[in-house]
Amino acid sequence: MEDLCDACGYDARTWDTATVADLIEVRAARITALLEGAGDAARRRPSADVWSPAEYAGHVGDALRYHRYLLNRGRAEDRPRLDVPDPDATEVVAAYADLDAGAGAALVREQAARTAALVRDLPVADLGRRIDQGDRVLDLALVMRSAGHEIHHHAGDIAAGLGSPGPAAAPP
Ligand SMILES: [Zn+2]
């Protein structure tokens, strides 16, 4: 759950909901274009311990769905207390192995559209609402900016896996 990342250059600490929603849509378009042009290369791991582009697409879909879950819980409840999920859980990662380029692209397209719509409509007054997640306190501003990080960061991973340049760290 980050809005600042040295690895990919993402820094959304001052971004508003419209900027993050725009970024999610633009990065989703980039990912789906990459995957739809990739064919079987989308299922190839660059090395044994690096996910294939299609596996990263599966992770992006799950991450965006989870961010929406947090935003909805945080808006509906007064400071809910939630566990930290394990993104590397065996059954989760195994499900990604079934994805091909087309399924991965469809997943990212749907999850990004739903997440961008939710972020775009978040009232400013709700951005300070808080969630206790494990031993961290998150506010909804961080959660919505972190959704943008997930798709930005992994757009870079997917591009790298297909030998293409990653997206710039700047907002769209
Ligand atoms: Zn990053």
Structure described in brief:
This protein is mainly α and 172 residues long.
How is the biggest beta sheet arranged?
3 strands, mixed
Highest-level CATH class: Mainly Alpha
| Beta-strand content estimate | 5-15%
How many distinct folded domains? 1
CATH architecture: Up-down Bundle
Distance between the termini: 21 Å
H/I helix tally: 5
Strand count: 3
Bound chemical compounds: zinc ion
Please, what is the average pLDDT?
94
Shape: globular
Low-confidence stretches: none
**CATH topology annotation:** Four Helix Bundle (Hemerythrin (Met), subunit A)
Radius of gyration: 16 Å
Helix content: 40-55%
Could you name the key traits of this structure?
172 residues, mainly alpha, Four Helix Bundle (Hemerythrin (Met), subunit A), three-stranded mixed sheet, globular, binds zinc ion
Topology:
Blueprint (H helix, E strand, L loop, with lengths): L16 H20 L16 H24 L4 E2 L7 H7 L4 H20 L9 E4 L2 E4 H22 L11
Parallel strand pairs: 1-2
Antiparallel strand pairs: 2-3
Helix pairs in contact: 1-4, 1-5, 2-4, 2-5
The structure holds zinc ion (ZN).
